[in-house]
């Protein structure tokens, strides 16, 4: 998201480049809220990366090159955040505003401390607009979703799912590998559960299959492997042809003959 920039905002204030750089450091790890309400209930996201970005070929109202502070935030994909994520992806929740403290507020007309120099922001002096430059940030409190931000361009510029975030960080290939491994793992788990249900059915013919399926469905891999070992031993005397081991069988029982 675009947190803030060096343009003159609706409050006739702006950050200088050095201030944006410092804010980037201060905002790392800060929470995202709503309407600057400092309540833990409103915490929805957290910044994990910031960067001051140049907007080449675009000049700020002051005449210098325009730059902005971008932030990357993460949030949980869970039931309580479902509506908020949908609103962000649809562009409804977009505008953001930052809460921070600065050491100096400088007048654009005289360069003195604004508030004691006699100039008024918004007025023109010999044709020059008076505005305030916010300098030397000392603290960053939070960033918030708001209806109307002071900075006109501040807001979410892109929402990322897992794959988009991986591409952004240069981890797309690693993510694809993990997804393939996860798919293989899920397939192995399903096949293992099917085998355990079959073995339990052979050893316990009076038990209903839906009950066996329900029991196996609640177990993890280690538990299923232990049950498979037990029920193989119990079923072998009664079904030697189906379960007999040959030379190709592994010591861990991972292969069987049908």
Could you characterize the architecture of this molecule?
With 258 residues, this protein is α+β, with helices and mostly antiparallel strands. It has two domains: 2-159, no CATH class; 172-243, no CATH class. It has seven helices and nine strands, in the order E-E-H-E-E-E-H-E-E-E-E-H-H-H-H-H. It has helices spanning 17-27, 82-89, 162-168, 172-203, 209-217, 221-235, 240-243, and strands at residues 2-5, 13-15, 31-34, 45-59, 65-74, 96-107, 124-125, 128-129, 132-145. Helix 4 (172-203) packs antiparallel against helix 5 (209-217). The longest helix has 32 residues, at 172-203. The protein is rod-shaped. Mean pLDDT is 83; it is low at 244-258.
Number of DSSP E strands: 9
Largest sheet: 7 strands, mixed
Tally of DSSP helical segments = 7
Low-confidence segments, given as residue ranges, are: 244-258
Based on secondary structure, the structural category is: alpha+beta
Radius of gyration: 31 Å
Overall number of domains: 2
Sum up the overall morphology in one term: rod-shaped
N- to C-terminal separation?
59 Å
């Amino acid at each position: 998201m675009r947190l803030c920039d060096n343009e003159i905002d609706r409050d006739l204030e702006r950050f200088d480049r050095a201030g944006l750089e410092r804010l980037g450091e201060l905002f790392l790890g800060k929470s995202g809220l709503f309407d600057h309400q400092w309540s833990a209930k409103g915490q929805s996201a957290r910044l994990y990366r910031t960067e001051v970005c140049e907007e080449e070929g675009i000049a700020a109202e002051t005449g210098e090159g325009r730059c902005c502070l971008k932030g990357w935030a993460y949030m949980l994909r869970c039931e309580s955040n479902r509506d908020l994520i949908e609103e962000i992806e649809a562009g409804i929740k977009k505008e953001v505003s930052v809460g921070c403290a600065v050491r100096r507020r400088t007048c654009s007309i005289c360069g003195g401390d604004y508030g004691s120099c006699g100039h008024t922001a918004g007025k023109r002096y010999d044709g020059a607009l008076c505005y305030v430059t916010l300098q030397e940030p000392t603290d960053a409190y939070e960033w918030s979703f708001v209806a109307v931000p002071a900075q006109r361009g501040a807001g979410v510029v892109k929402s990322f799912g897992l794959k988009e975030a991986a591409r952004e960080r240069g981890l797309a290939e690693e993510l694809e590998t993990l997804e393939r491994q996860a798919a293989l793992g899920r397939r192995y788990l399903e096949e293992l559960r099917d085998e355990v249900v079959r073995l339990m059915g052979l050893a316990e013919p009076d038990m209903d299959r839906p009950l066996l399926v329900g029991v196996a469905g609640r177990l993890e891999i280690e538990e299923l492997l232990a049950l498979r070992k037990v029920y193989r031993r119990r079923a072998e005397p009664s079904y030697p042809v189906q379960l007999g081991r040959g030379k190709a069988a592994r010591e861990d029982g991972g292969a069987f003959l049908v």
